[in-house]
Amino acid sequence: MADRVLTLSKYSLGTGDRFAHQAKAQLQACIQALHEGVEIVPVWNKSNREHTIIGSEPRSTRQAADAAVKALNWKLAYFCDADHITTQTVDRFMNDCDFFTLDVADFIGQAAPQEAIEAFVKRHPELSGKITLQGVDEPITISAEELRVAAQKFLAAIGKAGEVYRKIEAAKGKGNFIPEVSMDETDRAQSPADLLIILAAIADEGIPIQTIAPKFSGRFNKGVDYVGDAAQFEREMALDIAAIAHAVKQYGLPANLKLSVHSGSDKFSIYPAIHACMKRFNVGVHLKTAGTTWLEELIGLAEAGGEGLALAKEVYAEALSHREELCAPYATVIDINPARLPSASEVQGWSSEQYTSALRHIEKDPAYNDSFRQLLHVGFKVAAKMGRRYLDLLEANEGIIAKNVTVNLYERHIAPVFFGRSA
Q1: How far apart are CA 419 and CA 398, in angstroms?
Q2: pLDDT for res 332
Q3: β-strand 99-103 against 129-131: which pairing, if any?
Q4: How many C-beta atoms lie closer than 10 Å to residue 245's C-beta?
Q5: Which residues of 305-326 are buried (b: 16+ CB within 10 A; e: fewer)?
Q6: Helix (H) and strand (E) counts for the chain?
Q7: How far apart are CA 354 and CA 347, in angstroms?
Q8: Environment class of 132 (CB within 10 Å of its CB; exposed 0-12, middle 13-18, buried 19+)
Q9: What's the rounded Cα separation, in Å, for the pair 80 and 17?
Q10: Which residues in the chain come in under a pLDDT of 70?
Q11: What does the pLDDT look like over 219-229, one tens digit per residue?
């Protein structure tokens, strides 16, 4: 056992920083929250897919985070997340990360050995029948057949999570990193009953997870609002929180285990539900905001005018001409209506205000265009290919970009989720 087990605080915020230039601006939003009495721990996350597209290494994320913490004199915890890793991709993250998101979505539905299924069912008779959860009126009922079907669906995936966890533990030592299990990027939502079964399997694997990211019902598209029934989401979240509390007591999982809401950036219509559930059960949440910061960079460049606006327009033109290539890796988490995408020539004639109004996520603005925003969200590869030309403009316009990044993160995400204010 490690002498000191790394522990994730009650409230945490996953922040993406594609080009490793906005860590200070992101941390400033957490400092603003701290000044108002709420501690929110930043977790800088970047996936293997994003590093590969950009041509960066995890070391750059760590260096940017460390530099921001030093510059702003942040004395609380912070983490770097090896986001959505597998046994094949984890090695490059070992030295620089202390938070590991074990992504098993691709393995859901792969059949586990029949003897493993039967052993799980036999080991967990408590999962059959009616299960009363504290804090909710609605019990969970699982038939013997439903338990067997769920085991068949999820055991192989949890087994893969166990493999990755043990590989990290062998390299870093027990207690020296935060493990999360993610299964959100899949085609079907997991029910609260599924979550309880999954947590039992995770405990069997010996994974001391501190956050879990299930797939909720509704659409969680990148960088745009939630599409679905907010009341149904709140019901699911309440049941999931109750299921987690039950599993912590039943299976000895870490006491600080909490929900992680992936693709959580800009899900404004469910932020009141998230806040209400947190208050109702006195629990925390890990909210992942991912690529929304890259869009604030584009907004800042467009606001700056001149070369910045010209580059922002060029990024869109290139993204539009390579739409299928850019969208393919994110097909499950975007919904772009091609008819809503303006032509490159039309955008070329836009003013700074027209560009930023189309891109900035303000639903009540008639100029806001969610298809335009989603295409640019996945279009960071275009900027990556520009290399120093793009980075030099970020640095030349640091002030206006940083303001957009901080305001976006604090006012549109932190304030509604953690303080209960309107976005």
Answers
A1: 28
A2: 83
A3: unpaired
A4: 18
A5: eeebbebbbbbbbbbbeebeeb
A6: 17, 10
A7: 9
A8: exposed
A9: 11
A10: 1-3, 423
A11: 999 999 999 99
DSSP H or E segment with residue 201: helix 192-205
Tokens for 414? Answer: 């932190």
Question: How much is the pLDDT for 1?
Answer: 38
Q: Which residues are registered as beta bridge partners of 254?
A: none
> 171: how many CB neighbours lie within 10 A of its CB?
14
Maximum CA extent, the chain? 68
Question: For residue 3, what pLDDT is reported?
Answer: 57
Q: Which tens digit of pLDDT belongs to each residue from 94-150?
A: 999 999 999 998 899 998 999 999 999 999 999 999 999 999 999 999 999 999 999
* CA-closest candidate to residue 237, choices 284, 200, 203: 284
Cα(61)–Cα(58) distance, rounded to whole angstroms?
Answer: 5
The DSSP code sequence of 219-237 is: B--TTS--BS-HHHHHHHH
Round to whole Å and give the CA distance between 382 and 18. Answer: 12
CATH 3.20.20.70 region(s) of the chain? 11-292
Residue keyed to tokens 């029934």: 229
What does the angle CA 385 – CA 391 – CA 396 come to, to the nearest 5 degrees?
Answer: 150
Residue with tokens 């074990």: 102
CA angle 36, 415, 287 (to 5 degrees): 110
Does CATH number 3.20.20.70 belong to domain 11-292?
A: yes
Could you write out the DSSP letters of every residue in 359-398? HS--TT-TT--HHHHHHHHTTHHHHHHHTHHHHHHHHHTH
Q: What share of the chain is helix, strand, coil (3-state, %, to 5)?
A: 55, 10, 35
What whole-number percentage of the chain has pLDDT above 70?
99
